[in-house]
Design a protein that fits this description.
CATH architecture: 3-Layer(aba) Sandwich
CATH superfamily: Isochorismatase-like
CATH topology: Rossmann fold
Oligomer: single chain
Shape: globular
Strand content: 15-25%
């Protein structure tokens, strides 16, 4: 288990109610992510926070230097936990994340955060391509309603489709409670 790192992706203020781009279920997802963060800390596992920041002053959300781009108080980094700032959907692209994970001996990632259909998807697929074992805490991720070709797709359907697609791609899907139980030794 020492080779496991919790990867928290874009749990930032703009995704919460009152933010510039709120997601369906973000508060519940962040609460579950916070529980996993505490469990990871208690178990001595690696923790990496990823924060998206747009250099474009016209960005709709996550603008550099804004409160909306800050990590939510629910999952604030502590001590020497690494914070990776990204400007792309994929947390591994142009960030040094892969090198940092390899330097700490990470073989397994547990991924939480937002948005399920964007940054969680991209990071999960990139991690699988790079050879990491990946578990997604499906109840610690959030998304939003989407539309395609005139059809509205409600957030719960987007979430289900994304988790099904990532599982099909090779990621393990577990609830936060299942993962925390495994980390505490009760799930073995």
């Amino acid at each position: 288990m020492a080779d496991t790192t919790l990867l928290l992706i874009d749990i930032q203020n703009d995704y919460f109610p009152g933010g510039k781009y709120p997601l369906a279920g973000m508060e519940a997802a962040a609460q579950e992510a916070a529980r996993l963060l505490e469990a990871a800390r208690r178990s001595g596992l690696g923790v990496v926070h990823v924060r998206h920041e747009s250099p474009d002053p016209e960005a709709g959300f996550f603008g550099a230097g804004t409160i909306g781009a800050e990590i939510s108080p629910a999952v604030l980094p502590k001590g020497d936990e690494l914070v990776v700032v990204k400007q792309n959907v994929n947390a591994f692209l142009d960030t040094g994340l892969d090198a940092a994970l390899k330097a700490r001996g990470t073989a397994e990632l547990v991924i939480v955060g937002a948005m399920s259909h964007m940054c969680v998807d991209a990071a999960t697929r990139a991690a699988l391509d790079l050879g990491y074992g990946v578990t997604v805490a499906h109840d610690a991720t959030a998304t939003r309603d989407l539309a395609f070709d005139g059809a509205e797709v409600p957030a719960p359907s987007v979430q289900t489709a994304m988790m099904a697609a990532l599982e099909f791609a090779g990621a393990r899907m577990k609830s936060g409670a299942q993962i925390a139980q495994e980390w505490s030794g009760e799930g073995r």
